[in-house]
Specification:
The structure is a homodimer of 87-residue chains.
Chain A (H helix, E strand, L loop, with lengths): L1 E9 L6 H12 L5 E14 L4 H16 L5 E9 L6
Antiparallel strand pairs in A: 1-2, 1-3
GO cellular component, one term (chains A, B): cytoplasm
GO molecular function (chains A, B): ATP binding; phosphoribosylformylglycinamidine synthase activity
Family (chains A, B): Belongs to the PurS family.
């Protein structure tokens, strides 16, 4: 069994109104020392696979087809055997 | 300058229809070896602060007040000086 930790974010060139709204709210709340706000989606999948390469290839395909809108978003992920600690 | 990496997820007891919909879509696409799907929000903030403890306390307050709905969601985060590599 493998665990995939997937991060999906807007490309830098894409305007993120939600992150901007959060930044404005922070300033209104007095947290004006916050310089930048970036917001994204985070997924954790567990899947069976023959080996880590097979799991990695499958997760990449899943991100490309379903989890990320590749015209506007980028993604990166880690795949580890379940039981091995990462962050 | 400090960078906070924040993860906000539903509490285990809370039903996540979006994650369920993704799981069903994966099965339809033939990825039926995916056992579990968890989805959450991911934020990166950069902020100035006197020291890492002050930055940590502020980020905790920001999560509690703005980024997480603490009745349904949990959050965890890391705070590191900008320039020090983490995952």
């Amino acid at each position: 069994m493998y665990k995939a930790k997937i991060f999906v974010n807007y490309k830098p060139s894409v305007l993120d109104p939600q992150a901007q709204a959060i930044h404005k709210a922070l300033v209104r709340l007095g947290d004006d020392n916050v310089a930048t706000v970036m917001m994204g989606k985070y997924f954790e999948l567990t899947l069976t696979a023959t080996d880590v390469d097979a799991a990695t290839a499958q997760v990449d395909r899943i991100c490309d087809r379903l989890l990320a809108n590749v015209s506007m978003e980028t993604y990166h992920f880690t795949v580890t055997p379940v039981g091995e600690a990462t962050v």
